[in-house]
Structures are given as C-alpha cells and as structure tokens.
Amino acid sequence: MTLYHGSDQIIKIPELNHSARTLDFGPADLQFKATLELLVPLVIREIMKGRNISEQDAFEILYSSFLYSKLEVESTKLWHLSQLTLANLLDEELQTGSITFPEEA
Predict the structure, then answer these.
(1) Which domain covers residue 72, as residue numbers?
(2) Confidence class for position 13, pLDDT limits 50, 70, 90
(3) DSSP letter at 77?
(4) For the chain, what is the domain count?
(5) Cβ distance 41 to 6 under 8 Å?
(6) Kindly report the CA angle at 70 between 66 and 34, in degrees rounded to 5?
(7) How many whole angstroms from its chain centre is CA 65?
(8) What is the pLDDT of residues 74-92, one digit of tens each?
C-alpha cells in the first residue's frame, strides 16, 4: 500500500493490510486532503518527540495503526483533533491495543 503523507517521498508498507483504501483524492476531497497534508507531519513530529525515534519509524508506526485507518476517513472527524491528542490516542492504542475516542470525535 502506498500512503499519502504530505511530501514527495513515497512510503510503501507492504504488511499494512488492515485498510483497503488508499488516499486517492478526487476534487471533492481537496479540503480534506489539505487538512491531512498539514496534520500528518505534525502528528509525526509528536510521535518522534514522544518516542525519540526517526521520522521513518514514526511514519511506519502511524501508518500501520488502527488510528490512522480511522483518521484517513473524513467522516470520522478525527482530523479536527490536535496533533497532541492524536499522538496520545496512538500511544493508547500501542499500549492497550484499543482506543477510547474522545466524545467530540
């Protein structure tokens, strides 16, 4: 699967199979694409800072998560949460295997 992350670099994670959807945007999704383009790098920075890991490792962790499979779906409205909240939700997923989504999501 090839994932979009807001840069020209292509990251392929062949073992990522939990989502059949790739982020292939049409004209109606341009606002959502722009939001993800801004948000994903911010979340990646929070992951890198919190775990003291490389950018590549942070991308792999985020893109292989259940959280990301929900974040890439516009209707979940997870994209409106802060990068810190999203990074904390990812930590929760990694520690417990589940996520308690905030009520505003």
Answers:
(1) 2-22+30-96
(2) low
(3) -
(4) 1
(5) yes
(6) 125
(7) 8
(8) 999 999 999 999 999 999 9
**Whole-angstrom distance, CA of residue 96 vs CA of residue 82:** 21
Residue 105 lies in a domain: no
Residue 60, both tokens: 């792999």
48: closest CA among 60, 58, 35, 62? 58
Model confidence band, residue 68 (pLDDT cutoffs 50, 70, 90)? very high
Instruction: Indicate the pTM of the whole model.
Output: 0.73
Whether 104 maps to a domain, the answer reads no
Q: Which residues contact 73 (CB under 8 A, 6 or more apart)?
A: 21
What is d(CA 72, CA 89) in angstroms, rounded to the nearest whole number?
15
Tell me whether residue 102 is in a domain: no
